[in-house]
Amino acid sequence: RLLQNFRKKELLFKILIIGDYGVGKTSIIKRYADGTFSPSYKITIGADFAIKILNWDDNTRINVQLWDIAGHERFGYLTGVYYRYAVAAAIVFDLTRPETFKSVEKWLLDLRKKVNLPGGHPVPVVVLANKGDITIATLPEEIVNFCEKYNILAWFITSAKDDVHIDEAMITLINAAIEHH
Ligand code: GTP
Ligand code: MG
């Protein structure tokens, strides 16, 4: 058994979680990595990260490194540094604040300008419409059109509070990362 562990293939995937301030990036990461949720808002300064280890199959262990980029960093020069070596990204907006959906395009263009996969392929992206446990103000039709226009892998209505579609979104990104690995 020890020998088997020793022989396991280890992969490290850096995944970015980006989007406007207060949309729930930190909450999504906390939910996924620790299984917890806090209703109080503690603003992220700069960037932070969490790691989740997945025993993917008998031969593979994946270290998922989730990078939590502060919402107010969009126009900061640091985003390029934070984005480096990323293999996938989730762009999050807040369903109850339509203006945060408008920003998804800006985040995506910033990402595509600053980082690519080693082969030159664009970084795979999912869009997360978060706080789905509250009222939905942004129309799904707009989201679908956006995702078609920009070749987005998938979109999900998520809730970090109620743990809805967070695992599905992460698995979609990890599968895409494996495919391009
Ligand atoms: P910055 O660090 O400023 O960029 O914000 P953020 O995107 O990390 O947002 P954060 O996760 O701190 O969440 C902001 C607020 O929204 C907090 O009060 C959270 O508790 C709340 N929140 C996050 N996700 C959800 C959700 O799915 N449902 C509800 N009801 N509240 C949420
Ligand atoms: Mg945060």
TrEMBL record:
<dbReference type="GO" id="GO:0008333">
    <property type="term" value="P:endosome to lysosome transport"/>
</dbReference>
<dbReference type="GO" id="GO:0090385">
    <property type="term" value="P:phagosome-lysosome fusion"/>
</dbReference>
<comment type="function">
    <text>The small GTPases Rab are key regulators in vesicle trafficking.</text>
</comment>
<dbReference type="GO" id="GO:0005770">
    <property type="term" value="C:late endosome"/>
</dbReference>
<keyword id="KW-0636">Prenylation</keyword>
<dbReference type="GO" id="GO:0005525">
    <property type="term" value="F:GTP binding"/>
</dbReference>
<dbReference type="GO" id="GO:0016020">
    <property type="term" value="C:membrane"/>
</dbReference>
<dbReference type="GO" id="GO:0045335">
    <property type="term" value="C:phagocytic vesicle"/>
</dbReference>
<dbReference type="GO" id="GO:0003924">
    <property type="term" value="F:GTPase activity"/>
</dbReference>
<dbReference type="GO" id="GO:0005802">
    <property type="term" value="C:trans-Golgi network"/>
</dbReference>
<comment type="similarity">
    <text>Belongs to the small GTPase superfamily. Rab family.</text>
</comment>
<keyword id="KW-0472">Membrane</keyword>
<keyword id="KW-0342">GTP-binding</keyword>
<keyword id="KW-0547">Nucleotide-binding</keyword>
<keyword id="KW-0449">Lipoprotein</keyword>
<protein>
    <recommendedName>
        <fullName>Ras-related protein Rab</fullName>
    </recommendedName>
</protein>
<dbReference type="GO" id="GO:0005764">
    <property type="term" value="C:lysosome"/>
</dbReference>
